Amino acid sequence: MKISGFTIARNVIKYNYPVIESINSILPICDEFIVNIGDSSDGTEALLKELKSPKIRIIRNRWDMSLKSETLSQQTNLALKECKGDWAFYLQSDEVVHEKDLSRLFSLMKNNLNNQNADALRFYWLHFYGSFYRYRIDSGWYQKQDRIIRNNNTVESYGDAYGFRRTDKRPLGRVNTGCFIYHYGWVQPRDLMMQRRINAEEIGFVSLDDKKTKKEYEYGDLGRFPPYFGSHPKAMAEIIIKHSMSVEDLKRIDKEFWWHPAKILRLRYKTFNRVKQRID
Fold it and tell me: N or C: which end of the chain has fewer CB within 10 A?
């Protein structure tokens, strides 16, 4: 069995994507890793070349922004075409996998290698928001999606590359992994988060009104979101410890939830009860 990892990257330094941590989080179980780099103005390619692993292969493409939200799926599919593995493991540049899940994921791929009904392996999502200890589970934030697909030219990325579908339009045959994808795209300094939102609007991913084009993004009271008590991937340790908003939020959580069993046991857990909140 051969496993390919793949991702796309563009201006990851400018917008603070943890792409190095993302790649390193699954590299141990990959036989190769394809990185599709878009035209960048911030040294993205030089950064990725610092990864010295012989498993990593860089390809380059110019992103066609006229495709708007479909730009990401087009570039994802270009990277997928370069994959040679039986399975292709896709991570976006702000998604990370916990090292404790790697052996389980490897076993699931091995055990389903000859299961032709298994087109994709599905993950639960932890969308961290404002703090590394708060996550979104309200309407509008998808809570499960596919990230490992059978690499046989029958599965493709679509839309803004949040998921995959069969090219023949039949439903995907899925195997639930029970594992999390740790999504860190919404844990940024307020000014940088605003820059990222404006950039997304310019590309055509979102539409902002005047209230959302301020100098700083407003996360609001983080206490309205569920707390996360478990561990994070080791790859993210240095980034998390330097994030001041998270440091302060953790103090609040420790004081308010000192009694919580999940906190005491540091369980990697999230509530599955949808929380009604205003969509940002």
Answer: N
